[in-house]
Amino acid sequence: MAEPPGPVLVVIPTYEERENLGRVVARLNAAVPTADILVVDDASPDGTGELAEEMAAEDPRVRVLHREGKNGLGAAYLAGFRHALSGEHQVVVEMDADGSHAPEDLPALLAALDDGPGADVVLGSRYVPGGQVVNWPVHRQWLSRGANLYARFALGVPIRDITAGYRVYRRQVLEELDLDSVISQGYCFQIDLAWRALQAGFRVREVPITFTEREIGSSKMDASVMGEAFVNVARWGLEHRTSWLRPRARV
């Protein structure tokens, strides 16, 4: 694998992931030994934050950011991004703590930043050739595929897995996007960031991954997250398609 363009920070949000976190971090350290890890814990009542602190005390690559409560996945990632931008990291990775995102796939995602034409954002995609989903019930698969088809149609983008939560950003992308204006949560957050990157002219590339349903714990997704995505994607798509109708200022 080609070396990534600068120090890498993997942001892992957690809420009640004590049983999963240790295994994910161990696999990540084996897959990309040079990467730093930031655990963003939302005051998990099961002691995930305390476990992360123990791991950080033993491994200088691991850092912990504690938040006061469960305030949403999007807000957790934004806190992690701001931490990354306050330091020297040039590449920032989103990764789930539940094992659904295989750390062993990360080298390929990092390599895609510079392979061929290169990319500014790399999405770990379930729905491009070579990608797959393991152990998901049929209704979850249809929900996910339907959400991606809806977003592709509404926004007019070629991305096949725009809801993907396993992704890599160059530092420049996060510096130039207006992160303070992002309020989306759940997989709407993922659509939002990819859409903003495309609108800003950044190169977005998909790389196939194997997504495996978590074995321990339960999904944090609920109906409110799905409703948010449905409404916001429709609004963004409408605004984009009607932008040419707006009066333009005279020069």
UniProtKB/TrEMBL annotation:
Name of the protein described by the UniProt record: Polyprenol monophosphomannose synthase
Native species: Pseudonocardia xishanensis
Highest taxon above the source species: Bacteria
Transmembrane portions of the chain: none
Entry-linked CDD domains: DPM1_like (cd06442)
Glycosyltransferase found in the keyword field: yes
Claim: Isomerase is one of the keywords in the record: no
Alphabetically ordered keywords of this record: Glycosyltransferase, Transferase
Residue span, Glycosyltransferase 2-like domain: 10-177
Signal peptide per UniProt: none
Family: Belongs to the glycosyltransferase 2 family.
InterPro entries hit by this protein: DPM1-like, Glyco_trans_2-like, Nucleotide-diphossugar_trans
